[in-house]
Amino acid sequence: MTVAPELAEPVLEELRQVLGSEHVLTSKPARYNRARVPAPFPVHRWAERVPDLVVLPGSTAEVSEVVRIANANRIPIVPRDGGTGLTDGAVPVRRGIVVDVKRMNQIKEIDEVNRTCTVGAGISMLKLNEVLARYGLIYPDDPASYPCSLVGGRIGTSGWSLIGSRYGHSRDLVLSFDFVLPTGRVIHIGDGAGRKLSKSSSGYQLKHLFMGHQGTLGIATEATLKLFPKPEAELSPFFAFDNYDDAYRCVGELARAGVATFAGAVLFDEWKVNYLRRDDEAYIPQPTDVRALVCAVAYGYEDEVIAGGKRFMRIARDNGARYLGDEISEGDWAARHDRYATPLHGRTNAGQVVPMSWHCEDAAINYSNLPQVRLEWHEIIRKLREKFDMFDDWGMFTYTSANTGLDYLTEIDVGIWEQELDDASWAAWVDAKRDIAEVALRNGGSISACHGSCREGEVDLVPQELGGGYDVMLDVKRAIDPNNIMNPGKYGLDRAYESAEG
Amino acid sequence: MSAYRYTEQSEPPAAKQVTDVAIERFEHVFEVDPKLMTAHVAQQVFPNWDTLRIVASRHDHLDWMHRHWADKVISGQQLLDELTE
Ligand SMILES: Cc1cc2nc3c(=O)[nH]c(=O)nc-3n(C[C@H](O)[C@H](O)[C@H](O)COP(=O)(O)OP(=O)(O)OC[C@H]3O[C@@H](n4cnc5c(N)ncnc54)[C@H](O)[C@@H]3O)c2cc1C
C-alpha cells in the first residue's frame, strides 16, 4: 500500500465501513487514472499528482461521512466528476482522497408540471437528455465536453454552454443542489425552502458562491435542474469571409439582432481557418480567399426558427458573407463536441506532423475588445513557438455568451507536444499563459469564461482580477473550510490560512 | 457482394494531391499528406474498408447528434433562396 501515513489502516477501515470495501480504491490504475485532466502538462511529473486513495460514494450521506472522516484526520479531499475540467481543478496536488461522484448518476425525479428534474451529481447531460427526450424535454447545458462532463463538475466550474445565449449557462440552469461542506455538514443551496425556484430575494444569494469554486468549498451531490421543451427545429448556417473585419462586423450584428431563437454565434479567425485548412475535411477544399468564418445557431419551434433564420441570412448577406452550404453547416455544428478539440496532432515549425494534445486558453471579452486581444494572443504564441518547437497555434474562436452580444467566450487553441515538455518549455508555457491572462484583464475581461482560472500561470492574476473580492474569497474559504482540507492548493487559497496564523 | 481480397484491401487507391498538405484517395475523404508524417509519426497499413467504415460511422454520429438536439434541421440554403427570390 502506498498511502500516506494519515491514511493508515484505521482510517481506511473507517472508510470501508461507510462505503463498502469495493468502493475504496487503492490500486495504482485507480489512482493514476484520476491524477490528471485533459489539459497538457509535463508528463514526467505525473507522480506528483497522484492521490493516495479514491472513494466512490453512492449517496449524499456517504459523501458526508467521507468528508467528516477526512476533516477529523486533516486529509485533503479532491472532488472529481467527469475529470474533463481544463484548469486542473480535479487534479490532486496534495495527495489525499479523490471523491469520485460518478456512481451518483441516478435520475431521482422528473417533474413535468414544474419542468424540473432532480439528479445525482454524477450524471452526464447526454445520458440525462436521452431519458428526457421521452418526455419531450431537454436540459440544454451544452459544453463542447457534453458527452463526458457531468452535472457536479458543471456546478464545480460554473460552466459555459454553447447554446447559453438562448438557454443560459450552468448557473442559470441549475436551480438548487445538496451540498456537503468541508466539515461534513449537508446543506441545501438554492432559492426558497423547496428545490425548484428560479428566483427569490430572501437572504444572501448563495448559489453563485457555491458554483465555480472548483471544489474548494465542498461537494455537490444532488441537483435540481431547469428543463425546456425539446426543440422542434435547429438551424446553424456557416458563412465564409475573405477578411476578418467583415466577419467580425457580421458576428456582432447577428448577436445584437435580438432574434428570440438565437442560441449563439461564433467567429473563427484567420489562424483557425488556416489550421482547419490543414486537417479538416470541410475546409481543406475551400478556396484560399476563405479567411474567416461565422456561424449563427437557432433552436425553437420550426416557424420561429425559420423567421429568425431569414433574418440571420439577410444580415450575413449584407455583410458580404458567402454561405458554405447545408452539408458543411449542419456537419460542423453536429461536430461541435469534438472536431476542434481532439485532432491529436499538430505540426512542427518545419511542417512535420507530431502527436499533440489540445490546450485552450479561454477568457471572457467584450465585443469591442476582441480584435485587439486576438492580435496580442497570437503574438504570445508566435514567440513561444519560435523558442520551443513543440507548440502549435491552432487559431482562435470567439463565441457569444449572451443574447445581446456584449461578451464573448474567447479561446485560443494551442497544440502541445506533451511528451516533449521539459521543465524549461513548461516554464515558458506557464509564462505565456500568464501573459494571455494579462491581456484579457488589460482589455477589461475575465481570465476565464468557462474553465476557471486556477492553473499555473493565470492563477497568479486572479487577485488582480477580483481586487478586494479576492480578500473576501480568502475569508469565505477560511470560514467554511477551517482545516483547509477541501481541494487545497487551488486558487492560491492557502494564503487564507497564512494570514490567520500571521 | 464481392469476396474479400487482402491485396485489394491493403492497397489504397492512388492519391490525388488536393492541397500542399493534403491528399485524397477516396472521394471526399482527405488525408494528411504522408510526406509530412516521416519524422515523428509512424505509418501503418490501414485496410480500405476500415477507412470507409470510420467515415461512415462519423456520419452516423453526426446524424445522431442532430436528432438528439432537435426533431428537424432547417436548410439554410432554402432560407437563402427564399430571400433572393
Ligand atoms: C473537449 C473539451 C471541451 C470543453 N468544452 C467546454 C465548454 O464548452 N464549456 C465549459 O464550461 N467547459 C468546457 N470544458 C471544460 C470542462 O468540461 C468543464 O469545466 C466541465 O464543467 C467539467 O466537468 P467535469 O464533470 O468533467 O468536472 P471535473 O473535471 O471532474 O471537475 C471540475 C472541477 O469541479 C470540481 N468538482 C467536480 N465534481 C464536483 C462536485 N460534485 N461538487 C463540487 N465540485 C466538484 C472539481 O474538484 C474540479 O475543480 C471542455 C473540456 C474538454 C475536455
UniProtKB/TrEMBL annotation, chain A:
It comes from the Bacteria. One of its GO terms (biological process) is lactate catabolic process. Pfam families: FAD-oxidase_C, FAD_binding_4. Keywords: FAD, Flavoprotein, Oxidoreductase, Transit peptide. Its EC number is 1.1.2.4. It is an enzyme of class 1 (oxidoreductase). The keyword Thylakoid does not apply. InterPro entries: FAD-bd_oxidored_4_C, FAD-bd_PCMH, FAD-bd_PCMH-like_sf, FAD-bd_PCMH_sub2, FAD-linked_Oxase-like_C, Oxid_FAD_bind_N, Vanillyl_alc_oxidase_C-sub2. The keyword Lipid metabolism does not apply. GO terms for molecular function: D-lactate dehydrogenase (cytochrome) activity; D-lactate dehydrogenase (NAD+) activity; FAD binding. This is D-lactate dehydrogenase (cytochrome). Belongs to the FAD-binding oxidoreductase/transferase type 4 family. PROSITE patterns: FAD_PCMH (PS51387). Residues 47-230 form the FAD-binding PCMH-type domain. Its cofactor is FAD.
TrEMBL record, chain B:
It comes from the Bacteria. This is Uncharacterized protein. It comes from Tamaricihabitans halophyticus.
